[in-house]
Amino acid sequence: MGKPFNYGGQAVIEGVMMRGSQSMAVAVRDPNGQIVIHDEPLNAALYRGLLGRLPFVRGLTMLWDALGLGFRGLMFSANVAVGPEEEDVSFEGPLAWGTMVVALVLGVGLFFVLPKFIAAFFERMLGSALAGLLIEGVVRLALFIGYVWAIGHMPDIRRVFAYHGAEHKTINAYEAGASMTIEGVKPFSTAHTRCGTAFLLTLVVLSIVVFAPLTGLPLAWGILARIVLIPVLAMLAYEFIRFSARHADRAWMRILVTPNLALQRLTTREPDDKMIEVAIAALDRVLAKEQNVQV
Predict the structure, then answer these.
(1) Which of 53, 113, 164, 291 has its CA 20 to 30 A from that of 143?
(2) Which 3 state secondary structure label does DSSP give 56?
């Protein structure tokens, strides 16, 4: 592919956030049908400094920053989507960080603590630490897939997933050198190797391997160790996603990432033209800012 893979993003409420190496932009369609865009520069130390180049370390710093950007993008999209554009939108503050903390705590509890409790029951019943480890991995995977499947049936989330598809199509088209028009973007896939869904599935699979040495620990210590090792899992998953993107044209890598791409069928929907238009607007703003061009 002719373009560097510096660009990515996420779906927000009635819109798309795009992120490059120097700036981000959120494009949202307001109730009047107009596209409202917010952009801001990225932290240069994280994205273009030493921290952004150090293997494994870069995974933690960039993922943490991506969480912050994502929540600010969601807050902006919510303000725009529910009513007239606000002139003074707050992108920081207790609401953003409080929401992020609650979401992280719930995520850790659901996908790391609960599977261990369930596995511990079967481990005692079967008398096998290996069986407990495998059951924990299966339960974690089932909870993750079940959660994604369940929320995908909510009408509002289905629209978000369609914007997710628009984001992927636009990035795929840009990386392929296609024209940044609705007709130029429409033919491309709604799946992408650098998707956050792929990252999460990779993290879940890696947890089986990383948690293997913890099988002999008491339940409380085992849960604590799993929580402590979440950053390690995140670093490993991030590096794998980067590696898979660099080698996406290899046959063996296409086979390896097939489950990641298949799972995206649950988290993406085919977007309509207006959704693609929003995604293009977000990416165009990022490209313009990074090329010092006024839009």
Answers:
(1) 164
(2) coil
Cα 27 from Cα 134, distance rounded (Å): 43
Per-residue pLDDT tens digits for 124-166: 888 888 888 899 999 999 999 999 999 999 999 999 999 999 9
For residue 169, how far is the Cα from the chain centroid?
15
Q: What is the pLDDT of residues 215-272, one digit of tens each?
A: 888 989 999 999 999 999 999 999 998 898 888 889 999 899 999 999 999 999 999 9
Of 104, 102, 80, which Cα lies nearest the Cα of 17?
A: 80
Q: Which of 238, 241, 208, 240 is nearest to 226 (CA)?
A: 208
The values of phi and psi at residue 13, to 5°, are -70, 115
Chain centroid, CA 82 distance in Å: 24
The predicted model scores a pTM of 0.86
CA distance linking residue 169 with residue 125, whole number of Å? 48
As beta bridge partners, residue 10 has 17
Q: Compute the half-sphere exposure of residue 97: CA atoms within 13 Å on the CB side of its CA.
A: 4
3 state DSSP class of 65: helix
> How far is it, in rounded angstroms, from Cα 27 to Cα 264?
22
Give the H or E element holding residue 34.
none
